[in-house]
Design brief:
about 450 residues; alpha+beta; Muramoyl-pentapeptide Carboxypeptidase, domain 1; 4 domains; 6-stranded antiparallel sheet; 16 helices; 8 strands; about 10% strand; protease; cysteine-type peptidase activity; thiol protease; Hydrolase; Papain-like_cys_pep_sf
């Protein structure tokens, strides 16, 4: 019998889903062939042995199979790197991924399970490589891992890694440099929301991973003349984006009109009115997701370049006006809320947290996802969100609405995905998860 992951510790039951897509290595030739080799190989795969193949020695060499070094033959490596991996995947391909991440500075247990620690390491690798930070291991992430191991720029070797919540003289230095690059934030030595917003703007302008974590590439961008407010092109960016301004939610004018026409040419269906509203923001995020770049809704050099490429916005990925429906029947705003919440799957649970750098509690995830989708909600408790919105029946609920569990004085809530599923920051599982609703008293709440 194949072992399954332990069920979550939440007191209510739910369906367990196991993803075997990462289990791609051959495990022997079955009963008609070398049965013992097949058994040993299968055991090696299930326990994370990336080197188990059907070419392993026969029964007399079982001890050799167990002692195989973790290096992988080129053909097997190619087989692994053709697999897309994400949170929940298991098997030999995940073991190979963990070994590659460790070779790039991570410190993971090579157990063949794509859990939250592996997810954090993947996101860190993506940010350092300047590719889309989505936690999904596809061709670009595999390429960054299997190429030459990059070394940190010498210019930034003395600078610490800073993130939301950091304090001290290094943060003061960061804030001064951000202001020198065009930001306008308080220089108080505290890495708060204003500083995080300025860091994201800088990262977007520089065309690097937008994660609000200040590492070597962000320090290098600060010292390289990249402007936070736009207008200064990234030296390595193609010339197509040099003359285009940075745009974001709330902007107006001819540049926004040009953006909207380009988005429609890429598969969106939005009004061309020169106003960067929710529909335009949703289309921008859909394009960024399709292009595999940082999904932040800000149109910088990389987004302009994606608009000039053959990247297409799929019909069900957002990119429709507020009064239209994607093919799936989910409203643009609802889909944007769900996409923002899904981008944080695997993020750690933290009481009071509300950002990728701090982690989330249940209401913090709601605050993050709604505001990322352009719905301006102030920070409240779960109970505060229940009575700040409108309680509706289940038949009225739509994806993107909220599900609040009434126990413990409205002590928990999640974002409704549809079909009886929610995304929530789970205290019992200590991370953001997508799962089936459980049988406990609850209400649906909408801010539509």
């Amino acid at each position: 019998m194949f072992p399954t992951a332990p069920r979550g510790t939440h007191r209510a039951s739910g369906r367990a889903v196991i993803d075997y897509r990462g289990l791609t290595a051959p495990v022997g030739r079955g009963v008609g062939g070398a049965a013992m080799v097949g058994a040993v190989s299968a055991a090696a795969v299930l326990t994370g042995g990336a080197a188990a193949t059907a070419q392993a020695p026969v029964a007399s060499s079982v001890g050799t199979v167990r002692g195989i070094a973790p290096s992988v033959a080129p053909a097997t490596q190619s087989q692994f790197t053709s697999v897309t991996l994400r949170l929940g995947a298991r098997g030999a391909a995940v073991s190979h991924l963990q070994q590659q991440l460790n070779a790039h500075g991570a410190s993971l247990t090579v157990d063949g399970v794509f859990g939250s620690a592996t997810l954090r390491a993947v996101r860190s690798q993506q940010s350092g490589a300047g590719i889309g930070v989505d936690g999904v291991v596809g061709p670009k992430t595999w390429g960054s891992l299997t190429g030459a191991i990059a070394t940190k720029p010498a210019a930034s070797s003395s600078q610490p890694t800073l993130r939301f919540g950091s304090r001290g003289s290094a943060v003061t230095t960061l804030q001064k440099q951000l202001n020198a690059s065009g930001a306008s934030i308080s220089v108080d030595g505290v890495f708060g929301r204003g500083t995080a917003s300025a860091v994201r703007a800088l990262q977007s302008a520089a065309g690097i991973g937008v994660d609000a974590v200040v590492g070597p590439k962000t320090w290098a961008a600060l010292s390289g003349g990249v402007a936070v407010g736009g207008g200064t092109s990234v030296p390595s960016a193609p010339s197509a984006s040099v003359t285009q301004p940075k745009l974001r939610h709330g902007d107006r004018g001819a540049a926004v009109t040009t953006l909207q026409k380009s988005l429609n040419a890429s598969g969106a269906s939005i009004s061309v009115d020169g106003v960067f509203g929710r529909g335009t923001a949703s289309a921008v995020r859909a394009l960024q997701s399709a292009a595999g770049i940082g999904v932040d809704g800000i149109v910088g050099p990389r987004t302009w370049n994606a608009l000039g490429s053959d990247v297409r916005i799929s019909a069900d990925a957002g990119g429709r006006d507020e009064d239209r429906k994607p093919v799936s029947g989910v409203s643009v705003r609802g889909q944007a809320i769900i996409d923002a919440a899904r981008s944080q799957l695997g993020a750690r649970y933290h009481w009071g947290g509300e950002s990728p750098s701090t982690g989330y509690d249940c209401s913090g995830l709601v605050h993050y996802a709604y505001n990322q989708a352009g719905v301006n909600l102030s920070r409240k408790t779960a109970k505060g969100y229940v009575f700040g919105g409108r309680i509706i029946s289940r038949s009225e609920a739509k994806p993107g609405d909220l599900v609040a569990y009434t126990g413990n004085d409205y002590g928990h809530m999640g974002i409704y995905v549809g079909n009886g599923r929610i995304i929530d920051a789970s205290g019992s599982r200590q991370q953001v998860v997508e799962r089936s609703m459980w049988n406990a008293p609850h209400v649906f709440v909408t801010y539509r």
